[in-house]
Specification:
The structure holds two protein chains of two kinds. By secondary structure, chain A is mainly β. Helices cover 0% and strands 58% of the residues of chain A. In chain B, strand 5 and strand 6 form a beta hairpin. The chains are: A mainly beta, B mainly beta.
Chain lengths: 111, 116
Amino acid sequence: GQQVMQIPQYQHVQEGEDFTTYCNSSTTLSNIQWYKQRPGGHPVFLIQLVKSGEVKKQKRLTFQFGEAKKNSSLHITATQTTDVGTYFCAGREAAGNKLTFGGGTRVLVKP
Amino acid sequence: NAGVTQTPKFQVLKTGQSMTLQCAQDMNHEYMSWYRQDPGMGLRLIHYSVGAGITDQGEVPNGYNVSRSTTEDFPLRLLSAAPSQTSVYFCASTVARRGPSTDTQYFGPGTRLTVL
């Protein structure tokens, strides 16, 4: 079955630094979604990418969808303490329509 | 709109007990799902529904039943609780999947379940 892997599992970042988290699918995707979950909270939708090679920005967050539509990345610049949380990607299979979540990247920010 | 609501927020059960986790949405979404999230892990799909009267199994359906008699409600029933079902349960809804642009999942606040 479809597998979605995220790396790294944990990311300790100094406040003000940049970091990137990666998402890789075993199958081709029709779209990929990113969610953020604050500690003790529920996942909240951030963005959806649909087109091959698509890049979208939300303030300090940059999302990219790979050319082959099997991988994605989230890059955060100038990390702030408000970025603390777990970031999940979720890939919708191109064939079969199944949505699978990655294991998440848990981000901890050192002030 | 209240969005997606879940009750209860917290629940403690003894092994063998049964209970129903409630989920409701007021956005007229056709597609609803139940996930479980274990500590430090991602979300695993339990059951989902593409509309009233239609349900299907996800990745980890064993020990759970669902029904969808209305568009708004999608309850999850634990038949005979086991310690392995200790988890946080999230309900989510989305607009009918007419295309990838309508695929956003809206999550409820979760139910934290402990089975002793």
